[in-house]
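Quick illustration for those who missed Monday's session on complexes.
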Amino acid sequence: MHLEDLHAIAQQQQEADSKLEHILYVCTGTACQSSRSEEVLKAIQAELKARGLEKKCAVRPGGCQGLCARGPLANLDRGKQLYQHLTPEDAPAVVEALDGEPPARLQLDKQLPFFTRQVRVATQGGGLIDPNDLNSYIAAGGYTALLDALMHKTPAEVLQEVVKSGLRGRGGGGYPTGLKWSTVAKAAPTPKYVIVNGDEGDPGAFMDRALMEDYPFRVLEGMTLAAYAVGASYGYIYVRAEYPLAVKRLQNAIKQAQKQNLLGSNIASTPFSFNVEIRLGAGAFVCGEETALIASIEGGRGTPRPRPPYPAESGLWGKPTLINNVETIANVVPILQHGSEWFARIGTEKSKGTKVFALSGRINNTGLIEVPMGITLREIIFEIGGGIPEGKKFKAVQTGGPSGGCIPEQHLDMPVDYDSLAQVGSIMGSGGMIVMDETSCMVDVAKYFMEFSMAESCGKCVPCRVGTAQMYDLLLKISEGRATLNDLALLEALCDMVKHTSLCGLGQAAPNPVISTLRYFRDEYLAHILEKRCPAGVCQMKPEVMEVHS
Amino acid sequence: MSRVVTLKINGQDVSGREDETVLQVARENGIEIPTLCHLEGLSNVGACRLCLVEVKGVSRLLPACVTRVSEGMEVTTHSERLERYRRMIVELLFSEGNHVCSVCVSNGHCELQDTAIQLRLDHIGMPYRFPVRQVDASHSRYGLDPNRCILCTRCVRVCDEIEGAHTWDIMGRGINSQLITDMHTPWGESETCTSCGKCVQICPTGALFIKGKSVAEMTKRPDFLPYLAMMRNRKNGS
Ligand SMILES: Cc1cc2nc3c(=O)[nH]c(=O)nc-3n(C[C@H](O)[C@H](O)[C@H](O)COP(=O)(O)O)c2cc1C
Ligand code: SF4
Ligand code: SF4
Ligand code: FES
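Prediction with flavin mononucleotide bound:
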């Protein structure tokens, strides 16, 4: 496979496509599949066949269109017409209206800010690539970056592009990707490894799932570029077993790429060899932590270990290991395709590029979005997200899941970037964004996340193992109107202590939801404690319950 | 041979080899840092977090048992904040299990108790959790009372790293973590246990004990460990 071959494949595809009058992509991501999108796809195909139109219009499986709440979605002729709420029974209506106007209930307005305000980098292609078909990816420009790098660039040059792009890790920490790559590149040339972290354990997050499902070839290409830049010869994609579709598509992508010599020994007849294997996680949140993930791949118990040494120095089997998040890796391909300057023009001074967010909670447009860094929370929630349903009042937005915090109304005009979010007591996190309205109780929210952290703590270190359990009990006590101000003081002392003494990020960040809700919604805690009252009417007061121990 | 570096611990100039930890260098110089999961001769896991110290220029607190010394480092081992955190860690440990010292075989010879005394802990400010945990008395010579276990994993490591049996391990996660033998079979039925008793000797509390001992009679002798570890290293030529 050479660059010319890629161009030939792309051209062939384009020629074949140009003979068609219409191309319809039906989303086959997990969300749309769960509302029968595969049946929709088959029904439309059957309908076309029945009418002898299969040469006129092609129906293909595509990726996520973003507005998952209105699925199954479909996209006709690269965005000319969007469809929503499709059912297999709608197939005749869709086929009849190919050249005209589909019924209003099926039309999704492509001019919605939800679509026009997005900037697609990691999700480049907008779901209009068949995730099962390497040629479809190549037709969309896939693998040109890799072959160009292998033929015309040194590993150092690839690395420099990533450094100059200013890309930062999308797995939550925001560590400069180029810097991490250089550390691994500089490490002694024993076997080195690349790991792509697709564990994605935050509740409410599904960005990485969508990327792996919709753009499995981009993840592979990005990984291969990373391996070339740092001198690694073997890679692992760590995916949680709860993502069967992502696993299936990645497996298929690996097979197809190997067949075309885009993965394996002497890739594209160059001296560079790289192979990839998928490892399944059992869905423990802590296994997303890099050292726990490595232990899990090695076959051990998924518990973190103290760093340093960092994986870049001593990772998988004690060898230098690059570990990056799925979205970070997906960004690498567009950076090398369009250049670091192009990428660095998107976003803000210190946070370059875009971020994929999973919008959920009390918001009209739940789904997946990719927006430039620096956009405000207000724009995301009220323009792209379409605001709060049922005329309710906005209360807070939670970012960063169990490791993040709740941001109130007063900070909605703040730009979304790593540093601003940290300043207001939250984190960028991996991209979960949960919107809450006046019907949410902030004590209840804090309790929910603490319960999660308690259940997901690996139990290795004392502050997190026992501290999260104690904090959860205190929050439970507060939410049931059984707590005193002393309990609140103990809760705050524990927050401070667990944050600063825990071994890994799980424990260190577990108090964040409590700290941030106390910072902005202390009055709600006080109402529960002093007045035995839940202002939002969520918590059931049980002040009469005696202290009973199990 | 590794380089020698100089550093400051609590303002005192000290020197150490580059491959030594802050804890080792501190102890060589008579500076005491509380520890529970660390034991000379075993690998370090950095799990109890008692040995956290402040290092100038580093915003995070660092565990002395796994942090290597480096040239020019300035370490503080005791401060109001560190003491407060340490007391809370010990309080959390007491609240987690069922530690009734007055009836414990290890009363007076317990590292958890000693640490509490050292930290001048006079009461436990956390609600006790009173877990329900079954005693395992199935072994002919030894017993496990998990009510007194602090999950330091010293027994797990000594059994795996020194005895080579790997009888012990941890099951479950978070607050439900629990110490088990083999695949969660009773200790007495373990097929891997060699009954060497090393785990009993290095257990910091009365969780592992020799049968037949009464209250306060269970003294432990972990001193064999550094020698065994040293001899093993010598044999392996390192
Ligand atoms: C408790 C915990 C869970 C994590 N889960 C994930 C995860 O699901 N996916 C991920 O990419 N990173 C996760 N991380 C961050 C990883 O440890 C690591 O920093 C990241 O994969 C590095 O990739 P990046 O630099 O590309 O962001 C987690 C960290 C912690 C402490
Ligand atoms: S902070 Fe929690 S998850 Fe991390 S090592 Fe400690 S117990 Fe395990
Ligand atoms: S039994 Fe003793 S040595 Fe083993 S984990 Fe428990 S306290 Fe530590
Ligand atoms: S002795 Fe260092 S963490 Fe336990």
